[in-house]
Amino acid sequence: MLSPRTIELVKATVPALQAHGLTLTTHFYARLFEHEPELKNIFNLGNQAGGKQQHALAAAVLAYAQNIDNPGALAPVASRIAHKHASIGIRADHYPIVGRHLLASIREVMGEAATDEIIDAWAAAYQALADILIAAEAELYRAAAAAKGGWKGWREFVVERKEVESELVTSFYLRPADGGSLPPFVPGQFVSVVLYVPELGVEQIRQYSLSEAPNPSYFRISVKREGRDPAGIVSNRLHDNVGVGDSVRLAPPFGDFYLHEDRDTPVVLVSGGVGLTPMVSMLNALQDTTRRVVFVHGARDGRVHALKGHVEELAASRAHVDSIVFYDAPAAGDVQGRDYEFEGMVDLERIRGRVELPDADYYLCGPLPFMLKQRDILIGWGVARDRIHYEVFGPDQQQVGS
Fold it and tell me: What CA–CA distance (Å, rounded) separates 261 from 291?
């Protein structure tokens, strides 16, 4: 446990972090990669290039300092971080390396204000958090390897099928190259894919939700083409350079956003864009149950509406499944009442009578502004926070729970 003096000193740095946090994290990453270039194979260099990771780390460090005396507030974020770390292969021996450069960056950025006592306090605080994450990640690795069909680290898969789902999204059906079995996972979880990126000269790792219900034969990921966004370099490479018969390496399934299968209450799945991928996995797992399911999805228009026909078929053939579609800006060929119900962004207030259900669990996935809007509406209705579950990929993920 951290001493009262350590907590006091760390909290005393909050104003400096509020004023200079981004300068600190930008300096930290530059220092880290200069001294430890091999870590470029683990960190998302696309998010680095766009500044997203620096902003996210600044927010995370600030939140840790502000809540260092309230472990309960940090627990959900720590769980999410542990799953992400396990999915990219973070090891216990990485923590001292990162910690050394973080403490050096605090001293170099803060100058004389970073007294030895301040540095010692942050060293203790960092180690306390590292110990929690190391223990959590060790258990995740153990469970993944012990599961039937499970493994630790990277496993080679072969692309058995590649199916275009929309103008932007393509599904990849992946089977283990060794012919072995697949481990179970919980609908909503994701796998990491690692690819060598020639333009960067390093390997890069990206997480993709599994978009099919658990089955013994294959994993399916549905990947969005990301245009020129540097963070989308792996997704674009999958689209352009990985075909049927090619191999990719995957980590086991991880993620603390998943369908609560131990309940029989209604389920409301709310997604925007490619955020529908874990929702389809959940929907497929629920299709032969008696639980009421409302599938709410928003897309720009019909051209980019992925897996549309599949969801429509389930809604038409299962009495307990309802599908509601919003199109931001319907294309010329989109017909209201056939392709979509509502024009505009997803707005739960417009469909409150169909989605405000007693004891329902609400699952949200999409861009950060989308997530925050849906969460705030649900909280405004009085939905309990423990009934609102969310997933947003990328460095902004921890902000949704605030």
Answer: 10
The predicted-structure confidence for 358-394, as pLDDT tens digits, reads as follows: 999 999 999 989 999 999 999 999 999 999 999 765 5
Residue 258 designated active-site: no
Rounded Cα–Cα distance for residues 95 and 93 (Å): 5
Three-state secondary structure call for residue 130: helix
The angle that helices 94-110 and 14-35 make with each other, rounded to 10 degrees, is 120
H runs (alpha helix) in 36-115: 45-50, 52-66, 71-88, 94-110
Q: Cα–Cα distance between 56 and 70 in angstroms, integer?
A: 20
State the sign of the Cα–Cα–Cα–Cα dihedral 283, 218, 194, 152.
positive
Structure pTM? 0.92
Q: pLDDT tens for residues 283-292?
A: 999 999 999 9
User: Of these residues, 64, 126, 137, 390, which one is catalytic?
Assistant: 137
Told to judge if 95 belongs to the known catalytic residues of this protein, a careful annotator would answer yes
**Are the C-beta atoms of residues 52 and 395 closer than 8 Å to each other?**
yes
Q: Which of 34, 38, 64, 95 is catalytic?
A: 95
Tell me the C-alpha distance between 385 and 234, whole Å.
34
